[in-house]
Amino acid sequence: MASTNLVKPRITTFTSSTLPPRSLFITPYHPTRTITTGIQLHSALLINRIRRFHAGARRPHLSPPTKKVLMSASFFSFLGSLFSSSASAENNMTYPDQRTDEEWRAVLSPEQFRIIRQKGTEPPGSGKFDSHYPSTGVYNCAACDAPLYKADTKFKSGCGWPAYFDSVPGAVTRHTDRAFGMERTEIVCSNCGGHLGHVFKGEGYPTPTDERHCVNSISLKFSEDESGVKGDKQESKV
């Protein structure tokens, strides 16, 4: 019969002088504490990222396709809110052309109605008149056909919308627009009240007026005939 050799376990006794350092002992695992600590750490990192972002810190690296999509979405969203107007624009005037919304819908496309009658804005660079620079002619209101801007007042601003340094006298009315917590100057057609865009002054463009009428292309239509342009009225301001 084969004998079985049993190995006697070795027992080590520690004294105060031979006790291993405290760092060798493993702290007991606490699931709840670990989850809480993880949430706190994640929150701290998130807050830190937000602070760095608003402080102008360098943005985290994104792949080109992702970066392009995010920038396009945020950029157009920002511009849409920045250059649009709202019902808060001070517009208490009445206009010669008093067609109702139903009547305007019958003659305007849905996008024209959104911009001209509901004070929307088109994406920058999307309008057909952004890069349109004829030597003569006139830009009329797309809604009522009233002359608004002569071709020789159009200039290249690089903003993404048609830019003019002056309008046909009396053709454009200005309103104070306090939408989105800022004060700007909205411009509308003096004949029908259709929204055109906004006017900005003192930007340093080398033009006679140092003004930029930033106008939606969809609010305009071009005609080579300038015979209907009159120059005996002054621009209205409200």
From TrEMBL:
Catalytic reaction annotation: L-methionyl-[protein] + [thioredoxin]-disulfide + H2O = L-methionyl-(R)-S-oxide-[protein] + [thioredoxin]-dithiol
One Pfam family named in its UniProt record: SelR
Residue ranges of every copy of the MsrB domain listed in the record: 101-225
Biological processes per GO annotation: protein repair; response to oxidative stress
EC number: 1.8.4.12
Family annotation (InterPro entries): Met_Sox_Rdtase_MsrB, Met_Sox_Rdtase_MsrB_dom, Mss4-like_sf
Keyword match NADP: no
Coiled coil: none
Keywords from the named record: Metal-binding, Oxidoreductase, Zinc
GO molecular function, one term: peptide-methionine (R)-S-oxide reductase activity
Note accompanying the cofactor annotation: Binds 1 zinc ion per subunit.
Cofactor: Zn(2+)
Keyword Metal-binding in annotation: yes
Similarity annotation: Belongs to the MsrB Met sulfoxide reductase family.
Protein name as catalogued: Peptide-methionine (R)-S-oxide reductase
Origin species: Talaromyces marneffei (strain ATCC 18224 / CBS 334.59 / QM 7333) (Penicillium marneffei)
